[in-house]
Design brief:
187 residues, mainly alpha, Tyrosyl-Transfer RNA Synthetase, 2 domains, two-stranded parallel sheet, 7 helices, 56% helix
């Protein structure tokens, strides 16, 4: 069995391409390479981006949770909303703000915000402020740890070098098997 690669449904095609390449190579030269296996967690939901599409750096619709609070606030302010008025009821299930918020808030907090959307009287600016404050608070400790790690450049270099060496050793073993299988002899 090959390596398990954690991916979402959209990335599965890349694993399948790799499996096809490995299969063709192994059919020609013997069982040399291990085919990767996609590991898709079906219970993992798609997180909406600020435009309502799947959150992705490619779509430029992410909320960078390790950014400074002011930057997070500016980005959340751009979350797509409709033209409903403050007093209007709003459907939380079709609401980007709520769908992100419920991932970070406690169950009771999520239910309370849901009730406010359904009741009416909650404007988009206030809802965005609630989401922003929740994001900032939820990621406060991880953001501090992230910044601490980034500030220690020497530690980062040591870890990268150690793991690069490990990757080189592993890759050289695989490439030796490949070269041997296809008849290329190292000199």
């Amino acid at each position: 069995m090959g390596a398990l690669l954690l991916c979402d449904q959209g990335q599965k095609q890349h694993v399948e391409i790799a499996r096809d390449i490995v299969g063709a190579f192994n059919a020609e030269f013997g069982n040399i390479l291990k085919a990767p296996q996609p590991m898709i967690k079906e219970d993992v939901m798609v997180i909406p981006g600020i435009d309502g599409e799947k959150m992705s750096k490619s779509y430029n619709n992410i909320i960078p949770v390790f950014a400074a609070p002011d930057e997070i606030r500016k980005i959340v302010a751009r979350v797509k909303t409709d033209s409903s008025k403050v007093e209007d009821t709003k459907d939380p299930d079709k609401n980007i703000i709520y769908n992100i918020y419920k991932l970070l808030a406690s169950k009771s907090e999520a239910e309370a915000l849901r009730a406010r959307f359904l009741k009416g009287g909650l404007g988009w600016k206030e809802a965005k402020d609630i989401l922003t404050d929740t994001i900032i608070k939820y990621f406060e400790e991880p953001r501090k740890r992230y910044n601490d790690i980034l500030s220690d450049k020497e530690m980062i270099k040591k870890i990268l070098n150690k793991n690069a060496q490990h990757a080189r050793e592993t890759a050289s073993k695989v490439m030796a098997r490949v070269r041997n299988a296809i008849g290329i002899v190292n000199s």
